[in-house]
Automatic annotation (TrEMBL):
It comes from the Bacteria. This is Antitoxin. Belongs to the phD/YefM antitoxin family. InterPro entries: Antitoxin_Phd/YefM, phD/YefM_antitoxin, YefM-like_sf. Antitoxin component of a type II toxin-antitoxin (TA) system. Gene3D superfamilies: YefM-like domain (3.40.1620.10). It comes from Alkalimonas cellulosilytica.
Length: 88
């Protein structure tokens, strides 16, 4: 990944956009990474992966709910209190 400083990115914005069509381009400000510019196609793929992971996690959570593997917060706190009492 090519890295540009912010002032070069600003000055060469058109070139930055062309470079971003081929690979992500990092932007540094004061020597620290602050942004990455990537193509709209690559961003769409990233969002699709994120949505797929979220859907997978939600489906797993629903399965846990259906199988009774989920406890409510109050039950968890009560179990922790009981454990704490048994240790003293």
């Amino acid at each position: 990944m090519e890295i540009l400083n912010a002032s070069d990115a600003k000055r060469e914005f058109g070139k930055l956009l062309i470079k971003a069509q081929h690979e992500p381009v990092g932007i540094n400000k004061n020597g620290k990474p602050v942004a990455v510019v990537l193509s709209a196609k690559e961003y769409a793929q990233l969002e699709a992966c994120r949505a797929e992971r979220l859907q997978t996690a939600l489906m797993a959570g629903l399965q846990e709910l259906k199988s009774g593997q989920v406890a409510d917060g109050n039950a968890v706190i009560e179990r922790l209190k009981q454990r704490a009492r048994s240790h003293y």
